[in-house]
Amino acid sequence: MLPLYGFFDPTYILVIAGLLISMAASAYVNTTFRKYDKVQSRNNITGTRAAQYILQTEHINDVGVQQISGDLTDNYNSGNKMLSLSEATAQSVSVAAIGVAAHECGHAVQDHKGYSPLKIRAAIVPIANIGSSLSFPIILIGVLLSWNQTLINVGIFAFSLALLFQLVTLPVEFNASRRALKILSDGNILTAEEVPMARKVLFAAALTYVAAALSTFLQLLRLVILFGGNNRRN
């Protein structure tokens, strides 16, 4: 069995570190969004109108725009070609809301132009979800079956698929933000003074994906330390 180290598992430090990183990133994006959500855009354009304008400008005619409930639940679904904006974004005329709306449009532009990393991420989603949900049961079964290292390794590999998904997500998210800022820089939606504010909002949002990847990596590292190799405990 695993040693209890006096009822304390030192590898929990990795879990705590990952949790703190995620909390810090979440707090930062919320603080940054709230700050620039108070700044009304000079052109007085709502997030919904900004999204519609961007899609029209990019000659994307098969993507719908809808408002959904929640706060910062904005997303683009390439499956049904729907760009969903949260209540905090759709009807707001703030610089922050427009930045978020433009970012989601960045994903629509990626889809429209056949951006490869976006396609890869979409293909990985079901595999990563299955791997993430089955990894711990497989590892547990392996431990219960007299520490079956083959099963344990399969479980660790299954969990690593979640990390793979998050690593592929990083370039997708950063690229969407770059596309969004380039579009916003034409001055028809945000002024030259407002674009740097939107950039800060999108940078803060991107950090949450970096934090998620780091947190998952630390969890994977913990699994490898506890169960990988020949770490059988008698």
UniProtKB/TrEMBL annotation:
Superkingdom field: Bacteria
Transmembrane residue ranges: 12-33, 122-145, 151-172, 201-225
Keywords noted in UniProt: Membrane, Transmembrane, Transmembrane helix
Name this polypeptide is given: Peptidase
